[in-house]
Design a protein that fits this description.
Distance between the termini: 6 Å
Helix content: over 70%
Shape: globular
Number of strands: 0
Structural class: mainly alpha
Length: 221
């Protein structure tokens, strides 16, 4: 790939990754419309790791609170809110739990998905369908529950629906926010949980891509 192609695809990725639209689908469509070859495994790996770095940077304080909640207290920390520590530990477990379905299905079915679903027709259909579902969830959802109201049931449902993001054209952020809104979370809580649970998924996808890249002797660009 040329430097110009890399810059264009990187721009597409940056503009679409944190919106409820599928960044992967837009990368596929951009290459298809412009007549470029598939961007290759190395580019996909860089995209995953770059996105992960951005999310980790943005949510660094939230993540630190979750990590700190699992550390034993010392005598100087007796005034710490124990209820808040318990809440942070629960949120960390919810993040992991909500990521298991997508990581499992992605690992087992990535080859089949890439072979059978990575085409403009599937992308167009899934983009339209899940855009309508997101609008309905935002329009009809109660949006009354706050960040602190997230329960185990919410993590399970959002995690299960996150599997649909493996379909090209389905936004991972979009489908998880749709699930959160239908469960009654407000926009901020739905979006925040959506991006936090992206961390294990992006980490797993990035690690898998690195492994595949190493197996292919570093070829990709």
């Amino acid at each position: 790939m040329t430097l110009w192609q890399l810059l264009i695809l990187a721009l597409v990725q940056g503009l679409t990754e944190f919106l409820p639209i599928s960044s992967s689908a837009h990368l596929i469509l951009a290459s298809d419309v412009l007549g470029w070859p598939d961007q290759g495994l190395a580019f996909d790996t860089a995209v995953h790791l770059g996105t992960l770095a951005a999310v980790l940077l943005y949510f660094r304080q939230d993540l630190w609170l979750m990590v700190s909640a699992h550390r034993p207290l010392n005598p100087a920390q007796q005034e710490v809110d124990l209820g808040e520590r318990d809440r942070q530990r629960l949120l960390a477990r919810f993040m992991v739990l909500a990521s298991i379905p997508a990581l499992t299905v992605g690992y087992l079915g990535s080859a089949w998905i890439g072979e059978h679903l990575r085409n403009p027709q599937v992308i167009a259909l899934s983009t339209l369908l899940f855009a309508v579902l997101l609008w309905q969830a935002d329009h009809f959802g109660r949006k009354q529950r706050q960040w602190d109201d997230i329960k185990l049931r919410d993590a399970l449902w959002i995690g299960l629906l996150q599997v649909l993001a493996l379909i090209p054209g389905t936004s991972r952020a979009g489908i998880t926010m749709t699930a959160g809104l239908w469960l009654g979370l407000n926009r901020e809580a739905a979006a925040r949980f959506s991006f936090l649970i992206s961390i294990p998924v992006l980490g797993g996808a990035g690690a898998y891509s690195v492994l595949q890249l190493l197996r292919s002797d570093g070829q990709g660009f």
